[in-house]
């Protein structure tokens, strides 16, 4: 009877308990129940075309086919041997498949409102120009073009045409990273003194992919640079980078598999990137922000997060972390597609701006130069190039 005095009233008297804001999946469930998240869909379905049905293209095709706002009107891919399988697997019975040489069919179709560009980088600029000049919005895998000058031309053309050119930096749309950024911007740790990103790839990419990837700085480090600058709301004024190739086959093509970067920011914050092409224990993705009031971290996520074993005297064993980017950032890919659709339907403002993607490319090039020269590289910024606060 000693604890009877602590007995609470009936939960039905107290009223229903609300879900915590961080339970984003429950929030989405409520949206589906109430059918509030797609308000304004009287505009009709958005007809879209996909350019490139490879590694990234298949991820976006999954988002497109499962989205009630989208109709996939065209798939443009030069590997005809995949067409029947793609059509069957994704139930694209009403979609038309084209070779890239026939892209004008897409551009001339006034019913197509948007295109997703996931083809090889060398094709991006031509596809973007064709789509913009025919009045279509663009969702583009990074990089927008092969070099910064070409990417800038694409953004300038998008501005003249009054169309959206969205570069898909998917980590910004990951729920954990988004929450960390929000809490940093609310001052939870105070002025950030250090920010660390650990990004170790899994599985080891093929040599064929690496030959055309643009190098570890522009293929991998750009994501780490972007997330760091996005969280902080500033760009570095100095970078110092070191690189090494432990894998002979990667060294033979003039690339590297291991990178360490220190970024110095005008506010005094120091950033550190630990990057590897080959993590044998899974896709290692960690972010830490430290300040005078404490620390925030995003640690590795696991597909079986609640599963543990206690067998014999081996201690507690957990299941492996996610194996690769496609599984770790699955929700981020879905969220970025939702954001793109919201933008072109006038429901949201674009959250990845052109000058931000150009800045990330500039920083990556500075890191590449620092590693090559063996010394720090200084960066200067115009006021109009600075990130949104």
From TrEMBL:
The UniProt record lists the Gfo/Idh/MocA-like oxidoreductase N-terminal domain at 47-168
Q: Which InterPro entries match?
A: Gfo/Idh/MocA-like_OxRdtase_N, GFO_IDH_MocA-like_dom, NAD(P)-bd_dom_sf
Output one GO MF annotation.
nucleotide binding
Locate the GFO/IDH/MocA-like oxidoreductase domain: which residues?
179-296
Q: Example GO biological process term?
A: NADPH regeneration
Pfam families linked: GFO_IDH_MocA, GFO_IDH_MocA_C3
Alphabetized, the UniProt keywords read: Oxidoreductase
Q: What is the official name of this protein in its record?
A: Putative oxidoreductase YrbE
Q: Which organism is it from?
A: Cryptotermes secundus
